[in-house]
Amino acid sequence: xxxxxxxxxxxxxxxxxxxxxxxxxxxxxxxxxxxxxxxxxxxxxxxxxxxxxxxxxxxxxxxxxxxxxxxxxxxxxxxxxxxxxxxxxxxxxxxxxxxxxxxxxxxxxxxxxxxxxxxxxxxxxxxxxxxxxxxxxxxxxxxxxxxxxxxxxxxxxxxxxxxxxxxxxxxxxxxxxxxxxxxxxxxxxxxxxxxxxxxxxxxxxxxxxxxxxxxxxxxxxxxxxxxxxxxxxxxxxxxxxxxxxxxxxxxxxxxxxxxxxxxxxxxxxxxxxxxxxxxxxxxxxxxxxxxxxxxxxxxxxxxxxxxxxxxxxxxxxxxxxxxxxxxxxxxxxxxxxxxxxxxxxxxxxxxxxxxxxxxxxxxxx
Length: 365
What we know:
- The structure is a single chain.
- This protein is α/β, with parallel strands linked by helices.
- 37% of the residues lie in helices and 25% in strands.
- The chain has a domain at 3-48 and 57-66 and 99-165 and 257-329: FAD/NAD(P)-binding domain (3-Layer(bba) Sandwich), CATH 3.50.50.60.
- A seven-stranded mixed sheet has the order 5-4-13-14-15-12-16.
- The radius of gyration is 20 Å and the shape is globular.
- The mean pLDDT is 94.
- Keywords: Monooxygenase, Oxidoreductase.
């Protein structure tokens, strides 16, 4: 039986482990955190990701977490619609997206893995192209090493050397909150150098995020964020007021330069370790799920890792670049440019929006 070590127990790592187990591999997941968890954050799963989850056998379970009747679009900070998403056509053309808490998605994936596959509290220190892994509990080796250890990947060093992430110029605060008023709308509000997003979850809570231009590694507080978005349309202030300072997440936004390869020797990179992207298309986790399914499909075949690289690198790097461009537009701060941007968004027909999404959402396994 072929053996694999998956470094990283996030969404991409768990999906890769499940995909490999389902194709007959013996798998060990090494996760440095003492437990597998994700606090205060949701994830958007578009139709391409849901097809990947179908291939993993959990698509219907994840779809059951979605909201049936919601509206979506982009507003300005006064609440005026810039763009409305044609959800009926979206569902018919691609399938409805699902917004789910990351912890819930991880629970669904992990529940499908055999007992003993996931080892927590194990930090990987070094990986060799011949499949040897040095970690805090000793050493191990395998036929395949999967680098699913995020944007600051240790595994990536063996494939590409040192690669410094690129700061996008903006920072994000993310939270999952309880509010008394039911929310049936998801989407974003665009201001000047700042954005706010919200999405209802099936359990009645709301996933929300606040994004604004800031120097890299700048300090900040939730109170400052509340002040920054004060005066924006309802229910933004209520959502921020409900956020718990003990569980809210604050992260600067980065992506990766385009790597020359995702594979070397017995190693394959996936997810943020290979193609960390800004969150402007909601595709970071979606692409990790695609990676996992394709890697498992090809890993046992002759020249399989090279084929994985040829299939995944162009697609994911296209999405990295597109997401960065959208972020640049969404974060415009000069008043004249914001006025032009908002007018352009208003004038863009819904059909054009759907056509632009097709290249990403039409993906199949």
